[in-house]
């Protein structure tokens, strides 16, 4: 990922928080020279080593890519918003503010039923929450045969928080005000990140 130095995020704790908060990501592999991507929820394990785990439908050929070439990329995206040059005091061009994390690592494919069951039940508990009507995992064990698990040992983390840091303090303030006024969820999310970065 292209990351100019003023947009780079190096705080590992912040990067891991970001992944956990935006855990529905994109798993990217390369097969026969062509990229292939699946959009799936991940589980972050903050032990040693750091790992990401998930599962794919067995009908999805990507798990075979994982078995053949263990080097993978997982992409996580956060808030993003269009930035108009009319919000600057000086000259400028249209751009986009956004947050993204790329995770590079080596993957292993997992077929063990107990490992798959534990991960599926953790994902369910995480997203069902404590609602009275929360789904309690109850399904035929044979259904686990329809999925394939994987675990990525994280080798590299790259994070880009593009939040107008290359503009003057006044321009950053104007951008944040305009985003706050727009009313969109993504715009408000970017504005909140900008405010945090500016210590406000």
TrEMBL record:
Region annotated Disordered, chain positions: 173-200
Pfam family, one: FMN_bind_2
InterPro entries: Split_barrel_FMN-bd, TR_PAI2-type
Domain of life: Bacteria
PANTHER family for the chain: PROTEASE SYNTHASE AND SPORULATION PROTEIN PAI 2
Protein name: FMN-binding negative transcriptional regulator
Organism: Thiothrix winogradskyi
